[in-house]
Amino acid sequence: MTLPQPQPQLPEGGDLLDALTGLLRAAGDGLRLQVLQVLGSNSFAVLELCEVLAVRQSGMSHHLKVLARAGLVEQRREGNTIFYRRRLPTAEGEPALLHQALLDELDALPLATEVAERLAGVVARRAEQSRAFFDRHAGDLAARQDLIADFDQYGELAAEMLARALPEGGQAALEIGPGDGRFLAWLAGRFEQVTGLDNTRAMLDHARRSVQGLKNVTLCLGEWPQAAPPRQFDAVVLNMVLHHLPAPGDSFISAARRLRRGGVLLVTELSRHDQAWTRDNCGDQWLGFEEAELTGWAERAGLTLLESQFLALRNGFQVQVRTFAHLDATTFTT
Questions:
Q1: By the 8 A CB rule, do 177 and 239 touch?
Q2: Alpha-carbon distance 257 to 219, whole Å?
């Protein structure tokens, strides 16, 4: 009789080989590598990725499934829309090292010109939607945002943390989206020159009331980062702004490019939540961010975490206040 054949046994480390095989198979396609490039700092929905990469939805969905199975991308729901983003390596060992090396290589490569142009179009459309919301609701925005958090709940802590990071103040500070201008007024007492940048005149009018008479404060109209003054700053401030921005991850790179060595980025931002009503009521594009997400963006931009504090707010929201330093001797170019 025929003896039963022994079943093949995976060699020691068989799970590791499976993981490496899956990662390499997923990465062995030029289009999938471009998807990972595009997802470098931001999240995109399937249809947005189809537009950026000029691919039909069925094809894009297939490629995203392959990348997800290999642990290279993951989903994130924002209201009724599912966005895809990179999944960062979390475990130690060869798969994580290869995973990180792949991402590092992709980040060092420029996007194809036509892909970069289509990507800019998607981001510009998001920015226009945000700008339209603030134009419509500038008059009642404070009441809307008070449903989540008002400045009094986080402003003092943010000021204390920036003062600890830069105890001597500095020559210049930049605040993106200064709201009603109260933090600009505080900055004016610690920095020789302060700039507030917002993308709507209506919002700048609100800020102007708080800084009347402060001769060292300048208000600028325009989109961040394009309209930021072409100079180096000691501090860049993003107070409750990232969740309104079309490409929040890119803001860390833009901030690093405008910080002098030793300069500080202050970020006050909502932690990840599931209250989708904020998208319609408050103009939020993103439902907060995970702590690791902000840290990853900062590290990619060459910034080092200095301090983190968390505040629990009403209605189940949490705010994270964080400072990052630009300690690298290399200065980013614009």
A1: yes
A2: 20
